[in-house]
Structures are given as structure tokens and as C-alpha cells.
Design goal:
single chain; about 20% strand; globular
Length: about 160
């Protein structure tokens, strides 16, 4: 499979997974969280499919497309550990989280996801959903949308 086809499959899995997760948490009162803003495509999709939810965003830097800049009060700029701890201390409760932090090195990305899992768990609501590009630890892995091949993207319930 070409890298282009692989990317298209990943992006489709991401969008379908977020919509699937949104539907599962429709009755939960809680915020949404995008971990890893990047150029803002995922954040833009989340705000389109969940306009009634507060959407927190964590990233080291604000480098997204100008049309995808989150409101200042919802953008937590800094290291993930610090921002997740701040959210927990502030009592933030997340119904749907999307995990997309990465360095582009699979081993390093998997290790970081494992290291951050406990901090993510601290802010998730019971019954919440995590949609992730990396395997996370300490959550119940579930089968996501049937349109997404297993292990193409990771889906968890809390």
C-alpha cells in the first residue's frame, strides 16, 4: 500500500472513530479533548461534529491553520504531562478524548502514549471514549466502527 493510501485510510479511520465515539458519549456530560493539535484538521472536525461541546486542545505549540485556532481559554500550550495534570487539578472531566501526540518514531510514540495513559485516565469520565492513533494502557480496548480495520486505530472505553 502506498503511503498516500495508508494516510487516507488513517484519516478516514480517525474521522469515523470520532463520530462513532461522539455517538457513544451523547448522554455523558463532559468536555471533549484533542491531544495534539498539529495543523488543526482533527480539532476542526471535532468542532463540526460536536458544536455543543467544549473542546480542550493540548499541544506544545500553536502551529495550526489560521481557521483552526481554538479559543485561547481552551488551548493548553505546553508539555502534555503538565497540561493533563492541570486539567485534573482543575476538575476537568472528559467524555471523548482523541490522542494524536507523536514524534514520528513508532517506539518513542508508543512509549510516550504508555507514559501518559495514567494522566489521561485521571480526567476521563466513566463510560467515556478514547480514540487513539497509538496504543494506550489501562483502558478497556473495544472494537470501534466496523468500517475501521482492527489495529488501524485504537478505541477505548473508560
Amino acid at each position: 500500500m502506498s503511503r498516500l493510501n495508508s494516510m487516507m485510510r488513517r484519516l478516514a479511520a480517525q474521522a469515523e472513530g470520532l463520530e462513532w465515539g461522539r455517538d457513544l458519549v451523547a448522554d455523558l456530560e463532559g468536555d471533549f479533548l484533542d491531544m495534539g493539535l498539529g495543523n488543526g484538521r482533527t480539532y476542526d472536525h471535532i468542532r463540526e461534529i460536536a458544536p455543543d461541546r467544549r473542546i480542550w486542545v493540548i499541544d506544545r505549540a500553536l502551529n495550526c491553520h489560521h481557521s483552526c485556532v481554538p479559543p485561547e481559554e481552551d488551548f493548553l500550550q505546553g508539555e502534555a504531562e503538565d497540561m493533563l495534570r492541570k486539567m485534573a487539578q482543575d476538575g476537568t472531566r472528559v467524555a471523548l478524548g482523541h490522542y494524536d501526540f507523536g514524534f514520528g518514531d513508532k517506539a518513542k510514540d508508543v512509549a510516550e502514549a504508555a507514559r501518559l495513559s495514567a494522566l489521561i485516565r485521571d480526567i476521563m469520565l466513566p463510560g467515556g471514549v478514547l480514540v487513539s492513533g497509538q496504543p494506550l494502557e489501562g483502558f478497556e480496548q473495544v472494537r470501534g466502527p466496523t468500517t475501521v480495520a482492527p489495529e488501524r486505530y485504537y478505541f477505548y472505553r473508560t
